[in-house]
Amino acid sequence: xxxxxxxxxxxxxxxxxxxxxxxxxxxxxxxxxxxxxxxxxxxxxxxxxxxxxxxxxxxxxxxxxxxxxxxxxxxxxxxxxxxxxxxxxxxxxxxxxxxxxxxxxxxxxxxxxxxxxxxxxxxxxxxxxxxxxxxxxxxxxxxxxxxxxxxxxxxxxxxxxxxxxxxxxxxxxxxxxxxxxxxxxxxxxxxxxxxxxxxxxxxxxxxxxxxxxxxxxxxxxxxxxxxxxxxxxxxxxxxxxxxxxxxxxxxxxxxxxxxxxxxxxxxxxxxxxxxxxxxxxxxxxxxxxxxxxxxxxxxxxxxxxxxxxxxxxxxxxxxxxxxxxxxxxxxxxxxxxxxxxxxxxxxxxxxxxxxxxxxxxxxxxxxxxxxxxxxxxxxxxxxxxxxxxxxxxxxxxxxxxxxxxxxxxxxxxxxxxxxxxxxxxxxxxxxxxxxxxxxxxxxxxxxxxxxxxxxxxxxxxxxxxxxxxxxxxxxxxxxxxxxxxxxxxxxxxxxxxxxxxxxxxxxxxxxxxxxxxxxxxxxxxxxxxxxxxxxxxxxxxxxxxxxxxxxxxxxxxxxxxxxxxxxxxxxxxxxxxxxxxxxxxxxxxxxxxxxxxxxxxxxxxxxxxxxxxxxxxxxxxxxxxxxxxxxxxxxxxxxxxxxxxxxxxxxxxxxxxxxxxxxxxxxxxxxxxxxxxxxxxxxxxxxxxxxxxxxxxxxxxxxxxxxxxxxxxxxxxxxxxxxxxxxxxxxxxxxxxxxxxxxxxxxxxxxxxxxxxxxxxxxxxxxxxxxxxxxxxxxxxxxxxxxxxxxxxxxxxxxxxxxxxxxxxxxxxxxxxxxxxxxxxxxxxxxxxxxxxxxxxxxxxxxxxxxxx
Amino acid sequence: xxxxxxxxxxxxxxxxxxxxxxxxxxxxxxxxxxxxxxxxxxxxxxxxxxxxxxxxxxxxxxxxxxxxxxxxxxxxxxxxxxxxxxxxxxxxxxxxxxxxxxxxxxxxxxxxx
Lengths: 853, 113
Hints:
The structure holds 2 protein chains of 2 kinds.
Chain A: H1 5-10, H2 15-32, H3 36-72, H4 74-103, E1 114-119, E2 130-131, H5 132-141, E3 145-149, E4 151-157, E5 169-174, H6 178-182, E6 188-189, H7 194-198, E7 203-206, H8 208-215, E8 225-228, E9 231-238, E10 256-259, E11 272-273, E12 277-280, H9 286-303, E13 317-321, H10 322-359, H11 361-372, H12 377-413, H13 416-420, H14 428-454, H15 458-464, H16 474-506, E14 517-522, H17 530-545, E15 550-555, E16 568-569, E17 577-583, H18 587-590, E18 597-598, H19 603-607, E19 612-616, H20 617-623, E20 636-637, E21 645-651, E22 665-669, E23 680-684, H21 692-703, E24 708-712, H22 713-756, H23 758-766, H24 771-804, H25 816-842, H26 846-852
Chain B: H1 11-23, H2 29-40, H3 46-59, E1 62-66, E2 79-83, H4 85-102
Antiparallel strand pairs in B: 1-2
Helix pairs in contact in B: 1-2, 1-4, 2-3
């Protein structure tokens, strides 16, 4: 079967030229003796030439048209651009915050083979310390997991010998093998060598950004010396761009890694390190690694001869995939934030489309004229999209500018992890995202108005002239408004849930009063014999109590209100795990707790380390489930490896953080060998802040050289509220954006609704209709889509409830009161937005209107 | 006499109009392209010729018509082009303008003897 190649190719040529091109090519081919293939190829070349030139010219013409149209209605366009900027600004800000967490993989070799080892309590809260013994022995005794590496606490070093000349460098302590385990090679210079380890040379690997900004990207930075108090370190390399150490990194400024051969990043036989990372050996699975590490921890625990020090307990050790765990806490709700922001963007697009539809009068005349002159539907739609694109790009430009100016403010309210890994507003990825979002929205928002314009009754529009509009044109605007309302309801319901969750968190009874409570810790102190240290400790307590503003003082061997609570068995039943705390007398009064029954320890009991104890409600429920708390004082509690203790009091559960599951706790008099003074808890008079200098003097006077740090108890609590607070603020912000967008859209629709019916209103007024009736008429028309949208939105919120339930705290995601509240808020906003145009319309002078029609 | 503001012809437009003038009643796309290539050395693509012809027709400088079908089996009507008075005036004005500009320079046409 012969295929007419030329005939097929001719379909690429514009219709008006097809016959001419065919004839001319036939002549030429005949004259030159050319065949079908040559002719077909020439047809294709001609078609490309013709289309390209006409399309290119057409595109330029359409772009100029679009510019003119936007400029003609510049105030409208500016307003539309600003409301659109709201939607796109929110999304670009969200993208820059979550990009690293959601869309980029970790900057390590084969990150899915890396695991993170931590020590966690049953609530899933993980400690900042890890028993070094596991890392030390693990290299030899584990088959599934390779060598472990840790990144530790920060050190500060100076670029110059003279302090204060230049801002200090913040470096993270790392074990010598960190880069090797992560599979990362320095961008410049070399990794830590065995010789560095042998000679215990302190070496530094600078971050790429620090090398650029602080050392001017100089290649001779290798070999430079850095100074800290009493020692020097040598720069041996520069880390690759985008690298950051896994795990616990404090603060957003980070200048590199330092290998100090001491401290929390050194793999050693005893003591505590930061949670280490390791690589699974080839063929090993995560489950096998978990089982093996748990078994090793149990074996090492059995080999222990002395009770473990704080931070080195072997219970609760677990192994998790690094990639998942590094951002796991935030990944799910990062997606929630992205989804909510997406809803806002969708609303902004619907808003823009609605505005363009409603505004279309002069645009429709243009479109009708162009259609009459031969423009295709594709070109009309293209012009509409071009016009929308100009508005969207302007909006994106405004949004990016605002973001750049407010990036500091935004970073300040973000939770620490988002802030840590936030991408710059002027990063190419973020700019590209803003541009792409603007284009997608331009197509989405511009296509429908364009399609409507292309399907116009040309003769009708051109004949009608100015002032006569078809009612049907607003139908599209109303549907979009219904869509906007539905999305707005979703966001308001979400915000209500988040805000109520935050209120539930913040209102939780912690069992003590963190306001005006401070933790005072003294740094490393000389070791003393137990009796001597207790006497000194009591001296410190008395001296601190004498300070002005101090109402009460208490001491313990650990900090009850800090998140990393030691978990030790305290009853003879070794299966019961709970907290055991050694405290001074008056402890519960000082921290603002109360006794449910019984009494506190006396000073004699503390001094003589009497065999007494106080338990909390969770312990009562575990140990004596049939007893009322008031019946417990006077009972004996058998304890493993100790004589039984007489219970003298019952206290409420002290929660370490909001949402914590209460752990059974036993309080005993302070007296075990404190190798360092435990932190004091001091209660100040309301509003009074303790003086660090005064307390330092007191400490130095009694216990010699000591660095005193004071932390408010609320600080730890605040950290725990950071996530729910962030969620509440963010979703509330989105809800406000949604309300603003919906109000703007409704205002525009109501205005144009009133303008469409101007002559009708004029006639009604002339015939005696009251202004109130006319207002009700306009409002009724405009609020109908709002009603429909609200119903759809509530149904959608009901369906979406199962996805968001995990994020709410003691709030039912399907709570009818929340839904009712959302509907009322949307309804009220709609009423307010539509009121003004309706009122204006009802004030029309019928004489003027009737004269002009 | 030229008008105060005259639209100058583009380079390719000039060549095509001159070629149509030279070819008289036999001006269609193929010989127009061949003539320009022969006399100026410029090998314009077929697409360029067609686009220029369309633009000239839109500007009112040329007109086109379809001849009777060729007297051969499967012969089709051919599209011919002819200069309109506006086109002739335009190409004359452009040519004269260039000559005036070149007066007294090395590129000025040699005076007729």
